[in-house]
Automatic annotation (TrEMBL), chain A:
Stored InterPro entries: 4Fe4S_Fe-S-bd, 4Fe4S_Fe_S_CS, HdrC_iron-sulfur_subunit, Helical_ferredxn, NarG-like_sf
Record GO terms (molecular function): 4 iron, 4 sulfur cluster binding; metal ion binding; oxidoreductase activity
Domain of life: Bacteria
Parts of the chain that traverse the membrane: 6-24, 67-89, 109-130, 151-172, 184-204, 216-233
PANTHER family referenced in this protein's UniProt entry, alphabetically: IRON-SULFUR-BINDING OXIDOREDUCTASE FADF-RELATED, IRON-SULFUR-BINDING OXIDOREDUCTASE FADF-RELATED-RELATED
Entry-linked PROSITE patterns: 4FE4S_FER_1 (PS00198), 4FE4S_FER_2 (PS51379)
Protein name, per record: 4Fe-4S dicluster domain-containing protein
Gene3D superfamilies the record matches: Alpha-helical ferredoxin, Transmembrane di-heme cytochromes, Chain C
UniProt keywords, alphabetically: 4Fe-4S, Iron, Iron-sulfur, Membrane, Metal-binding, Oxidoreductase, Transmembrane, Transmembrane helix
GO cellular component: plasma membrane
Residue ranges that the Swiss-Prot or TrEMBL entry lists as coiled coil: none
Positions of the 4Fe-4S ferredoxin-type domain: 298-329, 362-392
Signal peptide: none
From TrEMBL, chain B:
UniProt protein name: Cysteine-rich domain-containing protein
The keyword 4Fe-4S is annotated on this UniProt entry: yes
Organism name: Belliella buryatensis
Iron-sulfur found in the keyword field: yes
Cross-referenced PANTHER family: IRON-SULFUR-BINDING OXIDOREDUCTASE FADF-RELATED, IRON-SULFUR-BINDING OXIDOREDUCTASE FADF-RELATED-RELATED
Amino acid sequence: MSILPQIAFLLIFALAGFFLYKRVSFLKRNIMLGKGETRNDQPEERWKTMLLVALGQKKMFKRIIPAFLHLLIYVAFVIINLEVLEFIIDGITGSHRIFAPFLGSFYGVAMNIFEFLAIAVLVSCVAFLIRRNVMKVERFNKPEMKGWPAMDANLILVIEIILMFAILTMNATDQILATRGVEGYTLLNGLFFSDMIQPLFLSMSDSALVVVERSAWWFHIVGILAFAIYVTYSKHLHIFLAFPNTWYTNLKPKGEIQNMPEVTKEVNMMLGMPVEGGDEAPAEIGRFGAKDVNDLSWVNIMNAYSCTECGRCTSECPANLTGKKLSPRKIMMDVRDRAEEVGKSIDLGGPGLEDGKSLLGDYITKEEINACTSCNACVEACPVNIDPLSIIIQMRRYVAMEESGTPAQWNAMFQNMETSFSPWKFAPTDRFNWADQLKNEEVK
Amino acid sequence: MAEMAASGESPEILFWVGCAGSFDDRYKAVTQAFVKILNKVGVSFAVLGPEEACTGDPARRAGNEFLFQMQAVANIQVMNGYNVKKVVTACPHCFNTIKNEYPALGGDYEVIHHSQFLQQLINEGKVALKGGGEFKGKKITFHDSCYLGRANDVYEAPREVIKALDVELVEMKRCRTKGLCCGAGGAQMFKEPEEGKRDINIERTEEALSTGASAIAVGCPFCLTMMTDGVKNKDREHDVKVYDLAEMIAKDMGI
């Protein structure tokens, strides 16, 4: 037997590994464009959150139908990948179904389970395609989904369908060959689903069947490797990033907005209070709030890469529901797209962050961030614990403190607070007036 | 507070009235209702009066961190000066800010929302409800405030308070973790909304009205304003009322 296929396999495998390594380094560097932030507290709570939300899909089940279909694909993905292990060993050693002799009759059972899952994936992917393209579920058809994002979603579903067909074709032809006693093929005691498509191939000669079987095998394994690389260019990255993303969840109460210690220092100095680390003016504070991706935390950018654009956030956002431009999903997509743009530019020796563009302004407008009610509906809705609100608040800080560009009515509110310690223009001395009526009643 | 401190008394709780509770005509009634309940029950409490300033919540959420911290640090100095241990407030925004955001600036207090305080009083039997009051048997719906619910996971206390009134509590489709904002959070209270198809409070009011409830209960001054405006906009103010929880309890107690 020729060892050419083995060499070809090794080459393809190594090449895929190399590309994956390059892509992962690129993504990691882009995420690290963000500022440092330590989130390692309460490790027990973090593992628990990851197990429940990422592994256990807890938040997916707020919407039962997509949750169920998604669960089928997810379980299939995890389990069918066990078979990929066999594919890889077979590919390297030139063996065929190397696990079959070790597992005995259980191997056939396992193959039947894989086939059942493959069918489940097929059905789910078709259902998802229908939801997107025929039923036109609203959250998949918002303005930010036009073009590549819609195409990306459909491509993933179609690729998955084709990969599942490859498995079934391979098993069907493989078993016909085994039944005919062709050398190297192992007869399994019936494969429920692929046996059904055997009639399609029965008229073919042995050699033609071998070609179909081998083609399906190669298509499947090369397809999976190509898909793994594709994922790094796609919203589909959530299959990996959901895990770290949920581990690094913000565990504080959702209503708490992170303090800015650099401001605290200045405020304390202004009020003549003792300041930690001496009272000399801070050397260079940098920028207040966020104008571009490097002003955000790395967790914000990881959030953006973890987003699979499902739009549950946007579909529950009160601003978006009432026709405002704000869409929390778009905020996440913009952060990712800007990080990609900056990363690519740096790799090409370009200006990177200094390209004259910025996240706020070129991607996200003030109109969008101003419409947020900070209600946390988006944060609550996200199946992988992404926090769009954190990004919105950081951009508002930039607008307020660096640009003084907040809406006029907010500026008036600030002024009231500065002069009369209330967002409304009332005399501070009138604060207790509500009690007058009660006192009068008591006198009576 | 100043008077009590001068005479050497240290009250059990500080009632944080908030700007709406001090200045908003409608919410002053809520402040008064809550104070009547406290007086009736005999809770030892104090208010800061003119020494209270805005917590800074809308400034922080509008992006003005300097202004927020100026307000916060001043308030913390006052409260720490009086050695305040426990704060009760009828405003979820003040509640959230003092509870979650003041500790980072040196203000550590036990902070509870008035819905939680009322629930405690009811559970301890300190508030004697007639149960046969004007709400008996009526359909009431509760609107979750974002800063009470999602922000701080307080969902049951206000519901327990309403149920104690012997009413039929009807839920809107979007309730608890899925509650829809009234449209006023994140400093939206202080500016016109961005351009869109409609206002958020109208969307929410329609949902509340569709439950057939004769009253909408809220636990937040901003929600109270937004829902009241929504009901007016729908020309339903004659048969649907918007109440704060404290008002409902005070009414039932006949005070």
